[in-house]
Amino acid sequence: MTCFSGETMTNARIAVLIPCFNEAIAIGKVVADFRACLPGAEVYVCDNNSSDGTALAAAAAGAVVRREGLQGKGHVIRRMFADIEADAYVLAG
């Protein structure tokens, strides 16, 4: 992952939103990469009924894990924007 090295928003609350379904193999690296590039941001993973341990892997990597019971990316994205307060959002999708 290439990190942006421009000016930072010092007082801004930045939320990285990662919707996922059955991504246990990759989610740890994705979370770690975002945490490295945006150290002041809070990384949120919204698990959409995964059956492979995605939520556990995301939590182990330092993400705040949320769950959405209604299947589908649209439901997950709506839930994340409704529940998470921030000044700036980064949506990985």
UniProtKB/TrEMBL annotation:
It comes from the Bacteria. InterPro entries: Glycosyltransferase_2 (IPR050256), Nucleotide-diphossugar_trans (IPR029044). This is Glycosyl transferase family 2.
